[in-house]
């Protein structure tokens, strides 16, 4: 299953797509796979990520003109913490190397993906991609 939302991460005035793919082939104990997609450039993958955990908050704070996504980092026995991805030369830091957010209550921004994935999976209340011919 894939969760996504439209957001202008790079501050160019056009929305990109931030997507998180969840499933046995895209996820592990450290998190899920994510992508920053540019839909107005032929759906180009600007960057892919590993170790993505939700919720994902896009901070109002910018570094080098790009908003800072904030997400959970956990797994491998490490304590759960929130981290800030910072963009440099059009590339965001990886969650494994990201800076820890000390005070989440001080963050302002917009939650772009905040579903409870476990509840969605257990209830079957989620969207999937399907062959249009079979969906009828």
Description:
- 8% of the residues lie in helices and 51% in strands.
- By secondary structure, the protein is mainly beta.
- The protein has one domain.
- Strands 1, 2, 3, 4, 5, 6, 7, 10 and 11 form a 9-stranded antiparallel sheet that branches. Strands 8-9 form a two-stranded antiparallel ribbon.
- A hairpin with a 2-residue loop joins strand 8 and strand 9.
- It starts with a strand and ends with a helix.
- Mean pLDDT is 84; it is low at 129-136.
Write a brief caption for the model.
With 136 residues, the chain is mainly β. It has helices spanning 117-123, 132-135; strands spanning 2-7, 16-21, 27-28, 31-38, 44-63, 66-75, 78-84, 87-88, 91-92, 99-100, 109-113. Strands 1, 2, 3, 4, 5, 6, 7, 10 and 11 form a nine-stranded antiparallel beta sheet that branches. A two-stranded antiparallel ribbon has the order 8-9.
Task: Produce the secondary structure layout.
Elements: E1 2-7, E2 16-21, E3 27-28, E4 31-38, E5 44-63, E6 66-75, E7 78-84, E8 87-88, E9 91-92, E10 99-100, E11 109-113, H1 117-123, H2 132-135
């Amino acid at each position: 299953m894939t969760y996504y939302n439209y957001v202008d991460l790079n501050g160019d005035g056009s929305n990109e797509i931030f997507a998180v793919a969840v499933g046995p082939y895209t996820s592990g104990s450290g998190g899920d796979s994510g992508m920053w997609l540019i839909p107005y450039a032929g759906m180009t993958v600007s960057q892919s990520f590993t170790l993505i955990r939700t919720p994902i908050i896009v901070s109002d704070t910018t570094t080098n003109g790009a908003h800072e996504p904030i997400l959970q980092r956990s797994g491998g026995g490490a304590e759960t913490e929130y981290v800030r991805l910072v963009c440099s030369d059009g590339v965001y830091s990886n969650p494994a190397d990201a800076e820890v957010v000390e005070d989440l209550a001080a963050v302002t921004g917009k939650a772009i993906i905040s579903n409870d994935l476990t509840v969605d999976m257990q209830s079957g209340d989620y969207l999937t991609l399907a062959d249009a011919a079979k969906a009828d």
